């Protein structure tokens, strides 16, 4: 029986689980993945590691849940920026989305992708879940009249390209080159949309 199923037997147990997850998520957002452990998470949550194991399967499960929570926040903020940009084009929406994705406060999410690359046997879900969280939203930003296949292809191109820019930026890449590359992506999206006219 997993920790999650034990804690969901009651509304009180589920509320406690959400409270603990929120505290651990805040610690992760502030301190990143370096030295993340069940004991560190317990200190951040003001509890013991045994209590965390009652509510979560293990440290990896807790880490995944906290990362997903942080990604949800970034997705919501990014979509709000894209929709509030005033731009009707996909290119304008991606231009508005990029500063949210590149914000230094989201560094821990890019570290999570690094973990997925470093130890895929253990952390593959961190990478896989990232795509599952972002792709539907990127698809939704595409022009409505595009076919489902075209939306999916363009969304995957945008996601892979932006992820590459983030990795480069986080690993000490050349910001001028990243900016030029991003501008090239935006121009490619503009051409893709202009092909409809």
Characteristics of this structure?
single chain, 197 residues, mainly alpha, Arc Repressor Mutant, subunit A, 2 domains, 80% helix, disordered N terminus
Would you write up a description of this structure?
By secondary structure, the protein is an all-alpha fold. It has 2 domains: 1-57, Orthogonal Bundle (Arc Repressor Mutant, subunit A); 68-194. Helices cover 80% and strands 0% of the residues. It contains 10 helices and no strands. Helix 5 runs parallel beside helix 8 (120-141) and helix 8 crosses helix 9 (148-170). It is elongated and about 60 Å long. The termini are far apart. Mean pLDDT is 87; it is low at 1-5. GO terms for molecular function: DNA binding. Keywords: DNA-binding. Residues 14-74 form the HTH tetR-type domain.
Sequence of secondary-structure elements: HHHHHHHHHH
How would you characterize the largest beta sheet?
none
What's the tally of helices? Answer: 10
Number of structural units classed as domains: 2
Mean pLDDT: 87
Radius of gyration, taken over Cα atoms and rounded to an integer in Å: 19 Å
Distance between the termini: 57 Å
The total beta strand count reads: 0
SS strand fraction: under 5%
Structural class: mainly alpha
Protein name: AcrR family transcriptional regulator
InterPro entries: Homeodomain-like_sf, HTH_TetR
GO molecular function, one term: DNA binding
DNA-binding region: 37-56
What's this entry about, in short?
This protein is an all-alpha fold and 197 residues long. The protein has helices at 3-7, 11-31, 38-45, 49-55, 59-84, 90-102, 107-118, 120-141, 148-170, 175-194. Helices cover 80% and strands 0% of the residues.
